[in-house]
Amino acid sequence: GGNRFEDLIVADGLSTGIRSENATENTIRRVRLIGNFEGAHLAGGSVIIDSIAQGNGSWGFRLTGDGGNKLVNNIATGNQQGIAVLGDGNDLRGNIAEENVEYGISVWGDDANLKGNTASHNDGWGISVSGAGASLLANDSIGNSGNGFEIRNGDAKVLKNKAIHNGSAGFAVRNAQVKFSRNVAVGNLQE
Description:
With 191 residues, the chain is mostly beta strands. The chain is 0% helix and 53% strand.
């Protein structure tokens, strides 16, 4: 197993609030990462639950490496980038990414599972996935300056998602095959 960080406040650091790139299977639970250069940067197989990354100068939460990272019920707000995950087999559920300077949620890698996440009022796109076998279920992307959802470079199943009042397309597809079912796109500048 990796490192465990629970019930902490890590604030006003000139570097990363919590960084554990060399150990896998790290856990962050109920941690507030405020005003650091980067909120958290963890290696593959890590879990972040019920935590907040706010006002960090780079990523709020960044996870790199395969091994099925899990992010559940977290908030990334006012960071340069909200949530970034790189690697295969990632699971993101019930996260909120709002008012980040660039994007809300971005996942690169195969077999990503995103359910019940919300990206709102980010200055770039809301939610982006790139890779084969992605599943997006019941996510909301609202009021972002760029696309609500971006699906790239692979295939995806996109079911019951909402793209509302985004500054570009509600759902943008690039070099991907996507199966859409029961999604809603309303008031986006490019429908």
